[in-house]
Amino acid sequence: MHWDVVEVKPEPGWSLLVRFADGLTGRVRFAPGYFAGVLEPLRDPRVFERVFVDHGAVAWPGDIDLAPDAMYQEIRSRGEWLLTSELLDAPA
Question: What are the angstrom distances between the C-alpha of 72 and each of 3, 8, 22?
């Protein structure tokens, strides 16, 4: 799919540079409060930097991943995807 992530690179300040299958490139930025619950291990910079692409999704060891379709839409419309703790509290 066009929203499959093909490359991910960790950057300083809890940020990721991502490139999608169709060439779209942008950043995913994490607000400090976002690392709660199952995402708690990502607070450790050594864990955060172990990011990789798994079947088109941004992932980390421990079965942690991000939805590539939502990431694609935000980056396409805003140039970046800012993940905040408010997103964790939003109804599904």
Answer: 6, 13, 10
Give DSSP secondary structure letters for 69-90.
Answer: HHHHHHHHHHSEEEE-HHHHHS
Report the SS3 class of residue 20: strand
CATH of span 5-89: 3.30.2020.10
Tokens of 53: 């692409």
What mean pLDDT is reported for the chain? 90
Domain boundaries, the chain: 5-89
pLDDT computed for residue 92 by the predictor: 42
State how far the Cα of 63 lies from the Cα of 21, in Å rounded to an integer: 22
pLDDT tens per residue, range 2-54: 889 999 999 999 999 999 999 999 999 999 789 888 899 999 999 999 999 99
Distance in angstroms (rounded) separating the CA atoms of residues 21 and 91: 30
Taking the mean position of all CA atoms in its chain, how far away is CA 65? 7
